[in-house]
Design goal:
mainly alpha
């Protein structure tokens, strides 16, 4: 029973088995057929001997080449099949393929243009066979490409030019215009490149500005910081050329600074400055020459003949073809001049050593040949001053001694003769200041001799009470004379006495009528009596008396007129004894006046509005 069932099942599934068998055989057969007729691979196509190749093989290989999708292979595909005659049975199919491939070449050229390869795009487009439809659009396409490219180039180059002028706003505006250029290369890659250039240019402008600012300091640190910032400006910057130019300028400034330091004998600082100069700035020959300068300067600094001669010989090693030859020749001439000056100074010192006035004078004349601006000029001037002092002292001391002897007699005539003798010593000579002091002393003595009798006469006249006469006599002593200050002091004193006496008399006269105004006027005049006047005490006494009289009159008037009483009392001066009492009286009178005014002011009554609020009226007491 079970075996029967198995047989029955087998009989029912045999169609499936048959289908599986035929499917397997079909797959194997198809694979074999495809293998027999498939297109040859590229290596096989490239190995074909084309003169004997069949049209089908050419077409198969052409399609294989075209499938690679490059301009070169598409052109190779076209060339491979276009070789067949026009009447070939496959010609129609071939022409269709050529048209397709030509369109593909033009598309690839367009892609090259969009990618930024204008030359490649034009080259590819112009290789399209002339008989194709695509060929008719080539020149128009190229013209469009060139126009677009020119537009992009113009915008880009103008923006770069504006960047170099540091007009960042204009450059940015132009960069935005690139976005409107109908080309991916210009609107994308070149736009990004330009925006990066603008950003970099802004930063590099800051570096340039900082560098120039540091360089202006003129110090080693300033130059170093400047070079550091300029070095950070890379070749991709629009300011790279400017930065390199500034680096060279700064290097030249550093070389000049090193020279100045060397001239100031700051050898270590000069060497540090020299070592910091970049060697890629084209100044290597100048730097090498400078080392010779350093050596020569060191020898010249000795300041003696051997040092200067060694410096000259060292500088002469600088050839005519060297950058600093001319400067070296100037230094040689300078040092040779210093040698001559040293020789002159030695000659002058030797001559002065003989000690006579004539020798000292001759030494001075020799030393004066040395220019003041030369390194030996200060020493020559110092020696000349010393020798000149010795000569003038020897020549002028006898004159001053004769003048002293004349002045020793003490009479006015002898003093005048002494002054005349002392003035024989000329201005600017060594003993002139000493002579001037003596002349001033003797002149003062003469003036005292002449003016003392006048002052004595004036004082005697003042003693007798004739102050105006005393003032007139003392005024005859002129300004600038020895007794002028004493005379003026006496005149001031006498004038004060006269003024005090006159004003006191005027005050007494003014107070004679005895009324308040007269007394106040008298007090005012008496206050102007000078403090140094002998009448001052009497004037103060009168002021006290008149002040009390004013207060008495004010008290009398107060019974009838408070305002007038206050006015009178207010005229008493603050330095008077009556002043305090007057102020108390004034306060009392002012208070009394206020009370009187209040008592005379009418009362204002508030009438009740009605009986209802009568209780709200204020109480009056």
């Amino acid at each position: 029973m079970p075996s029967s069932l198995l047989e029955l099942r087998w009989l029912k599934s045999w169609p499936v088995v048959v289908l599986l068998v035929f499917g397997f055989l079909g797959t194997v057969g198809t694979t074999a057929v495809v293998s027999l007729f498939r297109i040859p691979t590229a290596p096989n196509c490239r190995a074909v001997f084309w003169p004997t190749a069949s049209a089908s093989l050419r077409l198969q290989c052409a399609e294989s080449f075209a499938a690679e999708g490059t301009v070169k292979n598409l052109l190779a595909a076209i060339a491979l099949v276009d070789h067949l005659p026009e009447d070939h049975p496959l010609r129609f199919d071939i022409n269709q393929r050529i048209e397709t491939w030509a369109d593909q070449i033009l598309d690839l050229a367009e892609r090259s243009f969009e990618a930024g390869d204008l030359a490649g795009a034009i080259s590819a487009a112009r290789k399209i066979p002339a008989k194709t439809t695509a060929a008719s659009a080539v020149e128009e396409r190229i013209t469009r490409w060139q126009s677009i490219w020119q537009e992009g180039e113009n915008i880009f180059n103008t923006a770069v030019a504006q960047l170099k002028k540091k007009d960042f706003q204009k450059a940015f505006s132009l960069s935005v215009e690139l976005l409107d250029v109908p080309n991916k290369y210009w609107a994308g890659e070149k736009y990004n490149e330009l925006t990066k250039m603008i950003s970099l240019a802004r930063e590099d402008t800051r570096k340039l500005s900082e560098a120039l600012g540091f360089a202006k300091q003129g110090t080693l640190k300033g130059f170093t910081e400047a070079l550091k910032r300029l070095k950070d400006i890379g070749e991709d910057s629009v300011f790279y050329a400017e930065a390199q130019s500034e680096r060279k300028n700064i290097a030249k400034q550093m070389l000049k600074a090193a020279e100045d330091l060397l001239a100031d004998k700051a050898l270590s600082k000069a060497q540090d400055m020299l070592d910091a100069i970049p060697r890629d700035t084209g100044l290597s020959r100048e730097i090498a020459d400078f080392q010779i300068f350093v050596s020569a300067y060191q020898q010249a600094w000795a300041g003696n003949v051997s040092g200067l001669e060694s410096a000259i010989n060292r500088m002469k090693t600088l050839g005519k073809d060297r950058p600093r030859y001319a400067q070296g020749q100037k230094l040689i001439a300078q040092w040779e001049s210093e040698l001559r000056n040293l020789s002159l100074l030695t000659q002058a010192q030797e001559r002065a050593g003989r000690g006579s006035t004539a020798d000292l004078t001759a030494a001075i004349e020799i030393a004066r040949q040395i220019p003041r601006s030369s390194p030996q000029g200060d020493e020559a001037s110092r020696q000349i001053n010393q020798w000149q002092t010795r000569v003038e002292t020897v020549e002028d001391r006898p004159i001053l001694e004769r003048a002293d002897r004349l002045a020793g007699v003490g009479t006015a005539d002898n003093l005048r003769a002494a002054i005349q003798e002392a003035r024989k010593i000329g201005s600017g000579r060594t003993l002139r200041a000493e002579a001037d002091e003596r002349v001033a002393t003797w002149t003062s003595r003469i003036q005292r001799i002449e003016d003392q009798p006048i002052l004595d006469q004036a004082r005697a006249r003042a003693q007798s009470g004739d102050l105006p006469g005393a003032i007139a006599i003392a005024a005859r002593i002129g300004q600038g004379r020895a007794l002028y200050s004493a005379a003026q002091a006496d005149i001031d004193n006498w004038q004060a006495q006269e003024d005090g006496r006159s004003r006191l008399s005027e005050a007494v006269t003014a107070a004679a009528s005895g009324d308040a105004n007269a007394l106040a006027r008298a007090i005012e005049i008496a206050q102007r009596v000078p403090a140094q006047s002998s009448s001052k005490a009497q004037a103060d006494s009168q002021i006290e008396r008149w002040s009390w009289e004013l207060l008495t009159q004010a008290e009398t008037v107060a019974n009838n007129d408070l305002d007038q009483a206050i006015t009178i009392a207010g005229r008493i001066p603050s330095q008077a004894e009556a002043y305090a009492s007057a102020q108390i009286r004034i306060e009392n009178w002012q208070a009394e006046r206020r009370q009187l005014e209040e008592s005379q002011r009418p009362l204002t009554l508030i009438a009740p509005a009605d009986d209802a609020n009568a209780d709200e009226l204020p109480n009056r007491r």
